[in-house]
Every structure is written in structure tokens, then in C-alpha cells.
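name: query_chain
kind: protein
chains: 1
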Amino acid sequence: MFHLDRYTVLDLETPNRRGDSLCQIAWLQVEEGRVVEERVSLVDPQAPFEEFCIAVHGLTPQDVAGQPTLAQLWPSLESLFRGQIVVGHNVTFDLAVLIRSLALLGIALGPIPYLCTYRLAKRLLPHWPRSKDDPQGGYGLKALCKKYGIAMRRHHDALSDVWACQELLQALLKEGELVRDDLHQMRSPQGKGGEGLPPLYALGDPQASYCLSGKFAWGKKGRVADLIRATGGVVRPQVSSEIDYLVCGQSAAGRAPSAKVKRAQALAAAGYPLQIISEGELLEVLAPLHS
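structure:
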């Protein structure tokens, strides 16, 4: 086990789904559990906005016009990523976007140690009930804050989210202690734009596991499996307690439950965090919408 003496809580928002620019960034500097610095800034991404992302965070090109660019902000940010642990909810998304954005500026970071409260919640709350309304299956930031009574001023506002994440971390630490396996590293690969980074995960968990059942309108199961793997997921042949999702093809609609479905239903009823989704719902699960 280990203790977090000093760390940075990070959250950012993106103008589009390319994953190589940001339009807002916020962070808290925490020492011995006490917030000693709070910062937030809009960022001119020098990149186009998508309506999808505007609908998520509410920021528009007009909001960031005249704001500093990442290149201008970086001198004040750099110390936060040099030898410090970075904490966030689905923080692999935020770090991957940051690394990709910096790579376009010719800046490469060394290994970044990080702690993800999404992963931590999955470990400490293995029987927390799934939620169909949460893209992260009940382990999303908003859902967990509701569980612990943590007030969120506005979800997907970076400053609101870093404070919510900080309070969530403290709540989770009352559930159990940190162990070495909770600490991970993200490396900044060589190459323009951060090529070589893991995909941007929808669930913040590169080990999310899927099992496929039935026939799919998209084609053979191999094609569906390739799509899942391309977004960082793992495809397993059988339903077990390690599975996060059982994906049912369209051929399963209106038919008696298959053996895989019955097994998944039994595990879900026993409290395992397993969700049965349709072929159509899979695209929503894999969408690059973080936290």
C-alpha cells in the first residue's frame, strides 16, 4: 500500500473528438490531503469545434476566442507533470489528449504516474449496481458523486469536475487503502501527434472486457471484435465474472435467452458489475465521451 503525499487533480475538455486539442483545463495541487492551489483556464485549441462536444460542455469557439493557447500555458503547467502523481476520473483520456496536443508542439513528456478514480472505484466497489443511464456503467463521476452526496456545480465544467474528483478520492479512501496496483504510468511516445498512445477509452479502462453473443448486422463477430479492440477493449470467448459487457447481436431480439445471456443474467443478479447491451448500444459505449 502507499500514501498520496502530493498530487495534481486534472480535468480538461476538448473541442472535438480527434483527441489532440483542448479548450479548457483545470487542476488542483494537493498536499497531505489539503488543496493548496486551484487553477482553471479556457484554452484556444486552434482547432475546430464539433456540435457533439459543445453539447457536452457548453463551450463554443466564441468562448475561447482570445484565450491563451496550450503553448502559452505550458510554462505554468509543466511542473505539474514532472515527477508528480496525476489524479483524475478516467484520467487516461485527459493525459492522452494532453500528450497528443503537446506532441503537435514538439513537446514530449516523460513517464507520468497517475491514479484513476474510475479504476479505483471499480476495485473498491465491485458490487456497485450498474446504471443504464451512465456511459461508465454506474462508475461515472456523476453517479459516484451522487452516491457519496458530493455536490457538482456543473458536470463537464473542468473546475467543477476536479473538485468533485478530489472529494470522490477522499470518499473512496474511506472504503479502503491504496495499493501499488492502483498506481499506473502513461508514457509519451515519439512521433507527431502522439502516435503510439493507447486509444482514447470511452470507459477510462483499457481492460474493459466484452463477450459477443448471436449474429450481428455489422457482419461477422470478428469485425465487431476488431472494433472493440480498436477502442482498447478486450474480447473474451465466454461469459464469466470478469466480463463487463455481454453484447447481443440483432438476431437475439425476440428469441429465448441464449446460454450466454442466462449466465450473464445470473452473474448480474448475484451483484457482479456486468451489463447486457445490444449491438446498437455498443456504439454508445465505445463513443469517446469521457467521465
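note: The domain at 209-286 is CATH 3.40.50.10190 (Rossmann fold).
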